[in-house]
UniProtKB/TrEMBL annotation:
Residues 5-120 form the Tetrahydrofolate dehydrogenase/cyclohydrolase catalytic domain. It catalyses: (6R)-5,10-methylene-5,6,7,8-tetrahydrofolate + NADP(+) = (6R)-5,10-methenyltetrahydrofolate + NADPH; (6R)-5,10-methenyltetrahydrofolate + H2O = (6R)-10-formyltetrahydrofolate + H(+). This is Bifunctional protein FolD. The keyword NADP applies. CDD domains: NAD_bind_m-THF_DH_Cyclohyd. NADP(+) binds at residues 168-170, 234. It comes from Shinella yambaruensis. Keywords: Amino-acid biosynthesis, Histidine biosynthesis, Hydrolase, Methionine biosynthesis, Multifunctional enzyme, NADP, One-carbon metabolism, Oxidoreductase, Purine biosynthesis.
């Protein structure tokens, strides 16, 4: 029987840990975790994401601050806000929602966030710590951190002897995911669009992680029987069967056929997606524990 991972349920258990860690920190150290989320402009999808992040932060018991800035905000104004939040002792996590409007450069803004408050894990210091295997010192970006929770709950902390294949080599996901799998002792291949015989490479994977942004690219015959398949893709495709002009979300894996071969598989939606916000909350509570000189919980 194939196990279908319920991402909502796993995310809820992460959130439970965040809530109790938050209550304990407030009781023992008088510190309440603080998360500041910045959004610039009017993109409706970004506003929806940011609202759920702010709402979840409140539900976790954090101080939750949202800065909603107008489309015409200048680089200097945004930089000044990050500086203010860097200096604010009540704020432990800063997130600048991406993408920013076209006239703003995101990279200097992201790199100006204090690494210890970079709960998105996008600062080069945090990316460097992941790359060097220093996982207890930095903050790991939320989507790979969430995918690793699934991997650990399926295979345990030690992946010795297992072959892992990550399809995709982005700085946001593929590279940190490969580094995390390697740090857990897996034998890791980072595959991408230029890989020769991609299907053959994937068939060798005990753990197959797809993050390419191509709807249903990974077919059943790419999957080793019994493998763990983690689908990070979120693709909107036309769904005329639901009515004219309708669409639906699919992953990078052809779920129905791959589920017949895999041992464990994540669905889209409802797999990795719900974990991203949960891990943002986890990173914020970790940052607050460290600031208070305490050992943070593990997720
Ligand atoms: N936009 C879409 N996903 C993300 C994310 O994880 N972090 C940030 N900062 N912006 C995003």
């Amino acid at each position: 029987m194939t196990t279908i991972i319920d991402g909502k349920q796993v995310a809820a258990s992460v959130i439970d840990t965040v809530k109790s860690a938050t209550a304990a920190l407030e009781k023992d150290a008088g510190v309440r975790p603080g998360l500041a989320v910045i959004i610039v402009g009017d993109d409706p999808a970004s506003h929806a994401y940011v609202s759920s992040k702010s709402r979840m932060a409140k539900e976790c018991g954090f101080t939750s601050i949202q800065h909603t800035l107008p489309e015409e905000t200048t680089q200097e104004e945004l930089a000044r806000l990050v500086e203010t939040l860097n200096a604010d002792e009540t704020i432990h996590g800063i997130l600048v929602q991406l993408p920013l409007p076209k006239h703003l450069k995101s990279e200097p803004i992201i790199q100006s966030i204090k690494p210890e408050k970079d709960v998105d894990g996008l600062h080069v210091v945090n990316a460097g710590k992941v790359a060097t295997g220093d996982l207890d010192g930095g903050l790991v970006s939320c989507t790979p951190a969430g995918a690793m929770v699934f991997v650990r709950r399926t295979h345990g902390d030690d992946l010795s002897g297992l072959n892992a294949v990550v399809i995709g080599r982005s700085n946001l996901f593929g590279k940190p995911m490969s580094a995390l799998l390697l740090a857990a002792n897996a034998t890791v291949t980072t595959a991408h669009s230029r890989t020769k015989d991609l299907a053959g490479v994937c068939r060798n994977a005990d753990i197959l992680v797809a993050a390419v942004g191509r709807p249903e690219m990974v077919k059943a015959d790419w999957v080793k029987p019994g493998a763990t398949v983690i689908d990070v893709g979120i693709n909107r495709i036309a769904a005329p069967e639901k009515g004219e002009g309708k669409s639906r979300l699919v992953g990078d894996v052809a779920f129905d056929e791959a589920a017949k071969v895999a041992g464990v598989i994540t669905p889209v939606p409802g797999g990795v997606g719900p974990m991203t916000i949960a891990m943002l909350m986890a990173n914020t509570v970790i940052a607050a524990y460290r600031k208070a000189g305490r050992t943070p919980p593990k997720f």
